[in-house]
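Archive entry. Fields below.
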Amino acid sequence: MPAIKIRFAPGTKQDRLTIMKEAGKGKHGHILWFCECECGNQKRIAGASLKRGAKSCGCLTRERNTKHGLSATRLYRLWSDIKRRCCCPTDKAYKNYGGRGIRIYDSWKDDPEAFIKWVEETLGERPTKKHSLDRIDVNDDYKPGNLRWATSREQARNKRADNQVHPEFYKLLTEPLVFTYAEEKGGLLA
Ligand SMILES: [Zn+2]
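PREDICTED_STRUCTURE:
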């Protein structure tokens, strides 16, 4: 008897999960669905599990076993992202972080609890989904005093300011070109 095909409308919310789209088959031939979890995780979950009422990527179960809530789960993921970027040369982002000498504060390096506690007490809850943890000085470490919640727009502004050529220097770089062009143009017209 063929299995009854389970369907979900894209965007269906099921507790922490948002079911996005069909995403191929698992190794036993069952249909997988690409899901986004409120904790920030993305996961392919079997349609049958969803039908049985799966509520999260697995973070709910993990939280039940610890004292942490959703916010701490997100912060734990953040900590492990930062740690990989700074400490793991095989991570694809390493060249922009650890590879540039950006480090993670010693007391946080092997202690996610310390990191989570500091963020919760110092920066508080992430203001909105659009905010992420930003380094104020992009050339400095993940450490107390250099972190804030910022939107990607604020972060882009920060990065631009950092990479920006000094206006006077910019003039020096561009003006001779403009001048030469004007000269040539003048020459042509003359
Ligand atoms: Zn989750």
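CURATOR_NOTE: The CA atoms of residues 23 and 33 lie 5 Å apart.
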